[in-house]
Amino acid sequence: MAYNCSPLYNRTPLHATLDFPDYYATITLVFRDLTYALLDLVYPPQCLVCRAKLLSRPSAPGLCPSLRPSLPSGLRSGLPFGRPSSRSGLPFSRPSFRSGLCLFCLERIHYNTPPFCLKCSRPLAHLNPYAHCSDCLTKEPAFDFAWCACLYDDPLKSLIHQFKYNQGTFLRHLFHHVIISFIKTYHLDTQQFDFIVPIPLHPTRYRERGYNQAELLAGALARTLTIPLKRCLIRWRYTPSQALLAQKERWTNISGAFKINGHNNIRGKAILLVDDLLTTGATVNEAASTLKEAGARRVGVLTLAITPLRSTRE
Length: 314
Ligand SMILES: [Zn+2]
Ligand SMILES: [Zn+2]
Description:
This protein is an alpha/beta fold. The protein is 36% helix and 11% strand.
């Protein structure tokens, strides 16, 4: 029996015209977006920082055009939030839900821009002849270099606080995209590393918190960059939170806190240490020192944020 092949008479069901994974993905996206639309009706989404009502369907894609020039081009194009989902093209896309921020607060995240210290990437007010901050000139860090995507000030400061202390694990999606945008903007050579290693928490603190925020960031990076994740460090000595201590105390507090996990062979390996925040650098320095003593050839550090120290602003 011959069928009429005109599109008007084409009775081929939708799923037969799509590859199975696309069909499955489309159905999943329809249900996901319908669920978000219903949630919007019951619980209108608010910005995590300023509590402004978030728009489910932004009228203009991306950031406000008048604010766009303040971001480096790679970061502008790299921010995936505030635009309709190109994959689904559905009317119920809820991009603001994924970032959790209004466009105004998203724009207020301060990315780390040059000139910064070539060793720790702390921002420099002026590019000195050594291109190093005063801390790195006086105290040689154990890591080879650090890459830090953003400056630790509001609104990122309060977001990191929610991420670490208020079970805000969903923020890992936003933070992951911010870090990836930073990597792309500065063409950072991440493929030089053999492993990605998260800064570990002490088991007691892990049980209290229920997750390790550095591991959430490191896991997403490992998947995106296709670099193996290895938990080859453990924190075997319980230490008071670094956040509660003065700068000088942090170096003694963290001393000897890490050791190599089991029989991980890291001799001759290049390792990327991942953490959420670099303040004095004491924690990543101690972890890098432990890895170097165990034979690591190169240790780089990647963090979401860095605090500009008063001494390095000059
Ligand atoms: Zn806001
Ligand atoms: Zn430095």
